[in-house]
Amino acid sequence: VAGTAERPRMAVCLTGRHIYVQFVDDVKGHTLVAVSTLAADAKATVAGAKQLGTLAAQKAKEKNIATVAVDRGGFKYHGRVKALADAAREAGLKF
User: Fold this and answer.
1) SS3 labels along 29-90
2) Nearest alpha-carbon partner for 57 in 8, 90, 9, 11
3) Per-residue pLDDT tens for 67-91?
4) Nearest by Cα to 52 from 23, 75, 9
5) CA pair distance 89, 71, nearest whole angstrom
6) Residue 24: which H helix or E strand, with range?
7) Are the C-beta atoms of 40 and 14 separated by less than 8 Å?
8) 7: helix, coil or strand?
9) How far apart are CA 65 and CA 6, in angstroms?
10) Quick one: which of 70, 83, 61, 86 has its CA closest to 8?
11) Are 55 and 40 in contact (CB under 8 A)?
12) pTM
């Protein structure tokens, strides 16, 4: 999933210990916003993914990002990925 200048890509990466989210402008090749469970005092659980989704949406709104293309990085859309996406939607991001 490629992002554009108007609709950045929300890239999600999961590991056993952490969850990483980046908002990337693929046209310029820049990361606009990045959040992870490293700095968010959240764990790589479903509850932590919900917290991170809300935080990611708040940080994106601060950079005037309202609509994104979701890149789940090959991970299935369930569990932590679904919880993160649902929380980001509830916080105001549009996919």
Assistant:
1) CEEEEEEECCCCCCCCCHHHHHHHHHHHHHHHHHCCCCECEEECCCCCCCCHHHHHHHHHHH
2) 90
3) 999 999 999 999 999 999 999 999 9
4) 23
5) 15
6) strand 19-25
7) no
8) coil
9) 8
10) 70
11) yes
12) 0.89
